[in-house]
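Progress against Task 2.4 (sequence-to-structure conversion) is shown through the following example record, which the project officer requested during the mid-term review.
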Amino acid sequence: MGVADHCKGTFLELQRKKAHRYVIFEIDKKKTQVVVEKTGNPAESYDDFTSALPENDCRYAIFDFVTFENCQKSKIFFIAWLVFSFSYMIHLHTLRKKFYVVNAADI
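Structure tokens generated for the chain above:
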């Protein structure tokens, strides 16, 4: 199973352009690749994000958490929303590698 090319582009829109608050990914119906299921606009909250996740199914997600303590800060979280599913657990590492970006502050 692979990761659809548009997944990384959508992630980069969230990371660099702040075009989305979150991105939710699913495995397509053919079980061949991970695809973008939904994006949340920048004004949406964490509650909006959690209500967009399915109650009884697995998803991967990226959430851009923004805080305004002293100054605006942003931290991106990768989330595995898992109701035990072997196929989702197998591809978790592959998807995370696809989004690996070196943070200049970490160098």
